[in-house]
Amino acid sequence: MTKKAGLSTTFEESLERIAWDAWDEAIADYYFPALAKPKLVFDSTHREGFYIDTQEWRVTLNLLEVPPFVGEKEIHDFLHSISQHEIGHYDLCPYDGLTAATLLSAAMKKVSETFAPLVVNIFADLVIDTQLWGRFRELTEWRLREEIKDIFSQEKGKKKTKFSETWKILVKAYEYLWDVDLGLNAIDFTQADAKAHRIAAIIAPKLLEKTTWESKVTKIASLLKANLNEDFTLQVGERRTRGGQVCLKGPEDYERQFGDPSEIKSREKVQGKIPTASNADAERFAKDRNFSDYGAPARAAGLIHDGSTLATWYRGRARDLISIHIYETKPGGSLPAYPENWRIGDPLEDLDLLLSAQVSPVIIPNITTRKWRHKEGPACLEEKIPPDLLIVLDSSGSMNWNPEGRSDAQRGEYDIATVAAFAAAHFAFSRGCKVAVLNFSDVAITCDWTTQYAKVEGTILQYQGGGTVVPIQSLKKLARNADRHTLILIITDFGLNNFNSTIKACLELAVEGHSITGFFIGADDQEFDRNPRFTNLHEHGIFFYPVKQVKELIGLVIEEVKRYY
Q1: Which of 74, 94, 133, 486 could pair covalently with 100 via S-S, beta carbons 3.0-4.6 A apart?
Q2: Could you give the CA distance from residue 502 to residue 498 in angstroms, rounded to a whole number?
Q3: How far apart are CA 379 and CA 399, in angstroms?
Q4: What distances in angstroms separate CA 160 from CA 22, 151, 167, 179, one per listed residue?
Q5: Is the dihedral of CA 411, 413, 414, 419 positive or negative?
Q6: Residue 464 pLDDT > 90
Q7: Are the C-beta atoms of 16 and 233 separated by less than 8 Å?
């Protein structure tokens, strides 16, 4: 009925009305999440009935692909159930970009970047439908049976009936998950049965506990890897899902029932427009994750749309590691210490009548009159307005850098330096301060005072790998061009070829009122304490912290105390 050519306008309008009613009912089932209305189409060019339009990132219901039901109730029930399923991708699994990226990363441990979205979709479909089956058992089970019947009808009449192994594994997994008979007896499941049973056993325990999802996705990816390589092929050309880029083409039975294998689903992508990158989610995803495990899933999940992936990764690793406070000592003021006689000739305002009355009800000058002897109270530390920050960064050859490394040692000293620089810079930005950067090696690469973090990050990430000479004049110029006194943060391994002139310049800037501190990358505490180069620098207000690993930056508070005179 729904697939006849030349549909009348009245019939199309009727089908659209049913679809809107079904969608509204499904939205109510999820307690009205803030999702954009779906797009309704009659499109004979796509065999997928329900997918995401990547031009507008909206759920699309291709009403031409509704199975050929006889009555309106069945059409409504089917669209109601399929809408529940589609909404489930954005309200349950993977829900948002951060979860999608996490699951994509988990899949990529066993399959390529190309197949990872397919594994995540398979996992999400099973989770969503099983959750729906628990809430709407009859409706969900009926919809799945109708989808399977539709697949059978497409195969009917063909010379050779052949179902893909991936499709067989998934529909059999539903039978094991729900312990039902879906009418699959005519199909040979000899090869698919063991994997279907294993997948059901992986998914069923703690179904909705998100902390288990990563390991489950990795296990499913490992189980299905061979089948995906056999059933799915890479396509290059104009396709709806990837706009001409490389994408996946799946077997007809899989795509007809489960949709586009390349599709990435997350809540951010159904707001009626291409979403802005979620910086906070992208940075949270970077925590405790190697760069080689970060970029592909972050981009695929929509966490990064533009800008530098490497900068976002470092920004995430540096979040909340360092805080900077500048204090100055303030006098505590005078405090009453003990009472003594008030005598004629003393200032009248010093006379304490209440204290005098406590001594005697009769006020007799010089005899019963009292005053308080005061003394200076203890000094206190008062935090000043946060200073602007000048980052002086050593990117010489002795500061090795390989962001693709799997450990701090493999990533090198410049990796630690970069995390420290990002952490300090973003703390300063969070307090409304300006930041400047001096990246030195063979040449001086500078970023003048700015509040634009992209400029600062770009300067930090320009690794040179040459000599180790601090450009003294550039250092002085940047410091003196600041609007106020600054904190100069030097990050180096201190293999400086002009160490003495650098320290002399630092002492000169300290006298001018700038605070100077730094990280001695690669040193431990004992080595640092024994180094004669740093003797007596504290007396001049210059402080350094030895840092051997990134984890030593965690929770570090840089506190500089300005003495009051």
Answers
A1: 94
A2: 6
A3: 42
A4: 37, 14, 17, 30
A5: positive
A6: yes
A7: no
CA distance 174 to 179: 8
Question: Where is pLDDT greater, at 564 or 192?
Answer: 192
Q: What tokens appear for 321 in the block?
A: 């590691």
Q: Residue 100 has which token pair?
A: 């999608």
Q: CA-CA distance, 329 to 163, in Å (whole number)?
A: 79
Tell me which residue of 246, 215, 214, 219 sits closest to 233, measured CA to CA. 246
The pLDDT confidence band at residue 356, using thresholds 50, 70 and 90, is: confident
What is the enclosing helix (H) or strand (E) of 446?
Answer: strand 444-450
With CA atoms as reference, report the closest residue to 509 among 536, 531, 533, 489.
489
Nearest in space to 400 (alpha carbons), one of 495, 279, 479, 515? 495
Cα-to-chain-centroid distance, residue 548 = 26
pLDDT tens digits for range 488-497: 999 998 888 8
Within 10 angstroms of residue 10's Cβ, the number of other Cβ atoms is 8
Pairing of strands 444-450, 435-440: antiparallel
| pLDDT tens profile 518-547 | 888 887 777 666 777 776 777 777 888 888
HEC-encoded secondary structure of 471-524 = CHHHHHHHHHCCCCCEEEEEEECCCCCCHHHHHHHHHHHHHCCCEEEEEEECCC
Tokens linked to 219: 């296990």
Q: How many CA atoms lie within 13 A of 211 on its CB side?
A: 0
- Map tokens 């089932």 to a residue: 29
pTM score of the predicted model: 0.74
Cβ contacts of 118 within 8 Å, gap of 6 or more? 228, 232, 248, 250, 261, 262
pLDDT of residue 157: 59
Beta strands in 275-411 (DSSP E): 322-330, 334-341, 370-376, 380-383, 388-394
